[in-house]
Structures are given as structure tokens and as C-alpha cells.
């Protein structure tokens, strides 16, 4: 007996972070994007929906126009439905409404212009849903999207109610939502083809005429570790497409729009704020993440003992925006984006085509909203300095003076709660520099943007505990699951000895932090974070009077002048030593074209060492074309050491250079001190 017909929808998503390296993009194209589409073309009865971020489409169009032609052919054939979304793959709920609209329209326009179809549905970045989203989607002409089944189960639906689509609304703005089944997401392509077909056959028997949908990354078909050999080398994908065609009597692969056009929604639903399960775990602080994992394991054990699955579906982790609490750097980057967005008046019509076609500054803002460097999980890029740099670079471009603007002789000074922590910061904004002074954190400077070079030269990251560090300390150095298993469970170290780098900073990695410490301390103490410094002076609140900050007998006065930011220092009653820490990150510690220079000698950025009685230090970056010239009055002793974090990625644990700590210090021995530290930025020249 032939099972009843079941509709099967694959929604695949392709994206690479803004700022990713060309060789990585080429590898993704070679290992996944091209072989997948070529194999799909050989199976014309297999229909599916694919989403590409706009920035990825631009790269493909520039580097592989033949891929575009193949994609056009499949679209014209009706075999592939293109999905829209935010052009630069932003988390929609994290950006202003005007920018949401511009992002959605920009990708819809691009798909219509270059590939001949305006999308009806969107890929929802990281499947992050909030109840008010239908208003933004409907306004942009979007009629459907996909979220995980987790969202629906959190809303109280039963697993058997997820074989179709639902309508949701916000203040009358409606959109249809397709639940993506987690079981399919974990079956495809990691298990035998027969297991997926058996799952679909059982679904067809239970839900005749229904829809089974899976939404996941296209990169899992070839880019994820060990998947290329499995998916293409052993023929898994070919066998999968062949099996789908073979079961055509009861299994109908469809583009989502094909199904929605001929079927009414199963009902109305209101989903809670949610993302996929792993994301909601990653968004929790370290201790809470570990507690959540313990609770989940206990519930899963209880469910197995009781033979039901009614408990863990109501266990949810944090919201995506918790990353702004978990990582101060993510919050600062986000608030920098909002600051740049406010430059563009709300009075401008967001649906004006010129807004996102011809306005380079506004396009740079939209590019600075790309999601990857705002969070961290297995895939999150917050730990990747080149991805943070790409966002900062675009936000700096969005903040540059207009080409025809008259030069401003003095910087604009704003006293505002820049990072939204309840305390005021000072923002200095000139034609050449942008800087933020945080009086609540030791009167430090977490960001210095050099506008001519479109770079934030600080761009560092605090070393902090992560829940997965315990696995590294326990000696995890190899995969703990079979080849082609779920990427979320993979544990592997890319090099030995990483556990020795697990030291954690006392403070955020910012410039102009003041250290008061003993005369016996050494460079090794500085590198190991054991100066035993006065922490109130280093990171406590300093009283602000304009651009002058004071703490007990210490005083800092900041001046921005052209391409330089200087800090005048005065101190009394310091019994031993006082130092000022600077942090700069040119990202490539071993590159020959990026180095320290002092006293006629050059050292790579990974260098750790001491320079005695010197009044100046250079950092040169020929790749970015930017130089930093640091001078002190009087001459100082300099301690320099690299900052390495240890994080997880899809390939395993890895160390990442997050810049260098540079401490210029003086022996005061109780004597009054007057001095200055100046940071001057310039284009690198011979």
C-alpha cells in the first residue's frame, strides 16, 4: 500500500561573514555551493528553497559568474525558489525599523534584478524571532518565513501539530511561518539516507497531505568538518536526491511557495521570542549555561525514564540579545552601530530606492549590521578580530564626513550613555578620529577610530571563562563523536598546549588604563596578570569634569587634535610605579608587514619584551595602510605582551591573537608626576 502523499520542503541558507577571507569563500564554493547546485541540476524533480545573503551573492557574481548562470537556470525551471532576508544578514530584531526595511528591500531588489524573481519569503537570520516581526516583514512585502520547531513547542503546540504552516500576526500585520523540524536537521546529512526516508514515510502516514520542512545551512553539505567526503565522496547527496525521486508516489519535494499557494495554514499561532536551542544556550552567561546544560540532561533522563517528551520543550535558554550582557565588546559594537545609524535622519523615507542604491555611507551602515561578529557560539565570530574589523570599518565609513562637508577645526564632544549601562560616557568625534571615554571604567578608551583608514585600532577582546574551557582543561584533544556527526557536539583542539593560555583578564581591553603597582614587579607579572595593581584606580569610576577625569590623587586630561589623542597625566603620593596601558590590534601577529618599531629595531606583533628609557613606539601595518605613533613625556619603560584568547569554532579549539598589551611605566617613589601619553594615527608611508 502506498503511503499518503507528504510534501517535503528543504530551505537551505548560504552566507559567509562580512570580512571573511577570499580563500575561505573559495573553499566554500568548491566544497559545497558548486557541487550541491550541479548535483541538484541533475535531479529536476527535486524542488527546494535557497537563501543567499546579499554580500555572498555579490562575491559569487564577481568571482564565479558561471554559478550565477546555473542558479538562474534552476530558478527559471521552477526547481529553486530564492528566499530574501536582510541583505547583509543582520539579526533583524537588533537593528532600527528603518534599517530593517532597507535591508529587506535591498536583497529583494537584488534578486529581482539579477536573478529574475522577487522573493515572497525570507530566511530569518539564526532563526531569531520576536513577536513584533510580522510588521516589518509585511511592510517589505514578505509573506512567509521559517523558524525552528523549538519556537512552536515553546508556544505549547504538540510535535504532531508541526506538519504544515501557521499564520501569525502583530497588530494586524500577518505572515505565515513554517516550522523546521529539528529531527530532520539532525538526520540530514549525518545519517543514512534510508533513515531520513523512513522518517518521512512515517510522517506521511500520520499527516497525509502535510508538510515536513527542514531549514539549515547549505555549508553542512560539504564545508562542515568531514562532510565533503561524506556528502559527495561517498555519494550521500546523490543517493538522497535519487531516493526522493524514487518515492515520488507518496513524497513530493516542494518549494515553500508551491505548498503555501495550495494549502491553507493549519491555524493561527503566536510564537515567543526564541532561536534554535543551541543559540539560546550560548547566549547565557557561563555559570548559567552550565546550569542549563545540567538541567537539560536531567530532564532528558527523566523523559526517557517516563517515556514522554513533555518536559524539556518548555526549557529555554537566554535571548539572543543576552550576548550584549555576556560580552561587553558585543554590546559596544552594537551601540556603535546604533550611534552610526542615528546619523541618518528618520525623516528620510526608508522605501526610497536611492537610500540603499546610491548612498555609500548608508550602505556602509547596513554592512556594519552583519550579524556574525555580534555573538559567539560554534559559528559566532565575536572572537574573530578580522570579522569585528570588517564591521567597525564599515561603521567608520558610515560616520565619515560627507565629501563636500566643510572641515571642522574642533572635535564634537558628546556626553551621553553611549553603551547604555546607566552611566555617561564621552564621545569625541572629529574629521579624523572617533573615540569613546568611559569614566566608569577607569577613564579608559575602548575605541579609537581612524577615519582615513576606516579602522578601530583597539578592537580587542577580554579573555574570559567559557563553559567549553573545562573540556579543554580535561584534556579533550580529539573528536568525541563519529565522522559527520553534529557540529554542535564536536570537541577537538587544533594545537597542543592551549590550556596554558587560559588566563582571564581583570578588565576590558581598553586604552589609557592606569596601573599603580609595586617596584618588584616584572614583565612576566604583567603578562600573567599578576601586577597586584590598585584595581580601584585601574577600573573604578573616575570623576569627570568635561574632558578631565580624576581619582583620588590621579588626574587625566584628554585632548583630541587632528589625528592624535593625548592624555595628560598627573599623580601624587604614588609609592612605587605608575603605568598607562594601551591596547592595539593589527590582527596578524606573524605577518611580516605588521610590526613594532623602536630604537631602530623591528619586532613582530607576537613579540613579548621590554624597552627601557624610550619616548616613542611605532606600530606599523602595511596591509591596512595605518601606523600608530605612541609618544610619552617623559621617556618610559615599555612592557609589551600579546593577548591570546582560546575559543571554539567549527574546526575545534583555537588560539586567536586579540592585539597586544603595551604598558608605559615610570618609577614615581612618592614624587609628584606630570606627563603625557599621545597616540597619533597616520597612513603608512615609506
Summarize, please.
The chain has 686 residues and is an alpha+beta fold. It is built from 21 helices and 26 strands. Helices cover 30% and strands 27% of the residues.
Characterization of the model:
With 686 residues, the protein is α+β, with helices and mostly antiparallel strands. It has 3 domains: 6-276, 7-stranded beta/alpha barrel (Alpha-Beta Barrel); 284-317; 469-683, Beta-galactosidase, Chain A, domain 5. Helix content is 30%, strand content 27%. Strand 12 and strand 13 (444-450) form a beta hairpin. Helix 1 packs parallel to helix 3 (65-77), helix 2 crosses helix 3 (65-77) and helix 17 packs antiparallel against helix 18 (385-399). The radius of gyration is 27 Å and the shape is elongated.
Beta content: 25-35%
Summed over residues and divided by their number, the pLDDT gives a mean of 92
Unreliable sequence segments: 477-485
Helix count from the secondary structure assignment: 21
Question: Mind telling me which CATH architecture of the largest domain this is?
Answer: Alpha-Beta Barrel
- How many discrete structural domains? 3
Number of strands: 26
Any idea what the shape is? elongated
Question: What is Rg?
Answer: 27 Å
Structural class estimated from helices and strands: alpha+beta
Amino acid at each position: 500500500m502506498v503511503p499518503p502523499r507528504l510534501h517535503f520542503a528543504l530551505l537551505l541558507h548560504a552566507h559567509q561573514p562580512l570580512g571573511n577571507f577570499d580563500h575561505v569563500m573559495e573553499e566554500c564554493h568548491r566544497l559545497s555551493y558548486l557541487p550541491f547546485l550541479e548535483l541538484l541540476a541533475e535531479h529536476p524533480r527535486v524542488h527546494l528553497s535557497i537563501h543567499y545573503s546579499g554580500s555572498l551573492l555579490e562575491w559569487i557574481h564577481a568571482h564565479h559568474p558561471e554559478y550565477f548562470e546555473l542558479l538562474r537556470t534552476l530558478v527559471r525551471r521552477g526547481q529553486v525558489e530564492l528566499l530574501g532576508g536582510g541583505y547583509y544578514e543582520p539579526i533583524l530584531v537588533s537593528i532600527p525599523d528603518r534599517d530593517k526595511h532597507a535591508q529587506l528591500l535591498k536583497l529583494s531588489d537584488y534578486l529581482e534584478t539579477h536573478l529574475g524573481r522577487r522573493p515572497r519569503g525570507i530566511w530569518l537570520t539564526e532563526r531569531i524571532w520576536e513577536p513584533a516581526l510580522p510588521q516589518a516583514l509585511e511592510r517589505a512585502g514578505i509573506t512567509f518565513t521559517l523558524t525552528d520547531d523549538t519556537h512552536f513547542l515553546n508556544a505549547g503546540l504538540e510535535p504532531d501539530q508541526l506538519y504544515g504552516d501557521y499564520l501569525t500576526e502583530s497588530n494586524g500585520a500577518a505572515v505565515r511561518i513554517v516550522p523546521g523540524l529539528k529531527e530532520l536537521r539532525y538526520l540530514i546529512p549525518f545519517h543514512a539516507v534510508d533513515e531520513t526516508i523512513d522518517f518521512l514515510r512515517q510522517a506521511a502516514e500520520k499527516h497525509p497531505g502535510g508538510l515536513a520542512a527542514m531549514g539549515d545551512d547549505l555549508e553542512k553539505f560539504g564545508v562542515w568538518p568531514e562532510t565533503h567526503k561524506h556528502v559527495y565522496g561517498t555519494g550521500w547527496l546523490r543517493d538522497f536526491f535519487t531516493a526522493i525521486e524514487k518515492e515520488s508516489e507518496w513524497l513530493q519535494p516542494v518549494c515553500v511557495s508551491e505548498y503555501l499557494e495550495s494549502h491553507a495554514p493549519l491555524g493561527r499561532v503566536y510564537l515567543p521570542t526564541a532561536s534554535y536551542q543551541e543559540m539560546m544556550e550560548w547566549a547565557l552567561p557561563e555559570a548559567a549555561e552550565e546550569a542549563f546544560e545540567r538541567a537539560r540532561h536531567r530532564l532528558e533522563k527523566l523523559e526517557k525514564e517516563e517515556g514522554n517528551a513533555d518536559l524539556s520543550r518548555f526549557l529555554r535558554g537566554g535571548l539572543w540579545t543576552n550576548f550584549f550582557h555576556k560580552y561587553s565588546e558585543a554590546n559596544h559594537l552594537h551601540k556603535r552601530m546604533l550611534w552610526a545609524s542615528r546619523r541618518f535622519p528618520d525623516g528620510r523615507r526608508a522605501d526610497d530606492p536611492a537610500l540603499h542604491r546610491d548612498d555609500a555611507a548608508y550602505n556602509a551602515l547596513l554592512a556594519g549590521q552583519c550579524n556574525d561578529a555580534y555573538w559567539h557560539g560554534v559559528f559566532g565570530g565575536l572572537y574573530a578580530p578580522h570579522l569585528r574589523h570588517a564591521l567597525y570599518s564599515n561603521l567608520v565609513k558610515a560616520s565619515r564626513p560627507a565629501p563636500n562637508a566643510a572641515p571642522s577645526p574642533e572635535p564634537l564632544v558628546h556626553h551621553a550613555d553611549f553603551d547604555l549601562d546607566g552611566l555617561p560616557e564621552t564621545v569625541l568625534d572629529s574629521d579624523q578620529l572617533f573615540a569613546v571615554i568611559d569614566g566608569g571604567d577607569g577613564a579608559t578608551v575602548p575605541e579609537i577610530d581612524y577615519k582615513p583608514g576606516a579602522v578601530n585600532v583597539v578592537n580587542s577582546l577580554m579573555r574570559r571563562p567559557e563553559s567549553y574551557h573545562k573540556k579543554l582543561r580535561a584534556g579533550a584533544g580529539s573528536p568525541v563523536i563519529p565522522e559527520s556527526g553534529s557540529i554542535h557536539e564536536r570537541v577537538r583542539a587544533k594545537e597542543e598546549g592551549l590550556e596554558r593560555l587560559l588566563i582571564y583578564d581583570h578588565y576590558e581591553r581598553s586604552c589609557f588604563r592606569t596601573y599603580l603597582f609595586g617596584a618588584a614587579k616584572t614583565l612576566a607579572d604583567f603578562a600573567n596578570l599578576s601586577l597586584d595593581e590598585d584595581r580601584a584606580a585601574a577600573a573604578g569610576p573616575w570623576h569627570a569634569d568635561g574632558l578631565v577625569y580624576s581619582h583620588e590623587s590621579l588626574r587625566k586630561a584628554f585632548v583630541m587634535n587632528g589625528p592624535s589623542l593625548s592624555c595628560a597625566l598627573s599623580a601624587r603620593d604614588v609609592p612605587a610605579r605608575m603605568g598607562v596601558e594601551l591596547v592595539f590590534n593589527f590582527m596578524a601577529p606573524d605577518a611580516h608587514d605588521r610590526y613594532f618599531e623602536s630604537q631602530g629595531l623591528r619586532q613582530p606583533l607576537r613579540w613579548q619584551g621590554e624597552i627601557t628609557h624610550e619616548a616613542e613606539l611605532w606600530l606599523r601595518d602595511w596591509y591596512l595602510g595605518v601606523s600608530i605613533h605612541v609618544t610619552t613625556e617623559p621617556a618610559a619603560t615599555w612592557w609589551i605582551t600579546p593577548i591570546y584568547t582560546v575559543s571554539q569554532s567549527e574546526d575545534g579549539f583555537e588560539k586567536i591573537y586579540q592585539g597586544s598589551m603595551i604598558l608605559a611605566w615610570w618609577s614615581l617613589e612618592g614624587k609628584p608626576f606630570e606627563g603625557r601619553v599621545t597616540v597619533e594615527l597616520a597612513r603608512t608611508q615609506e
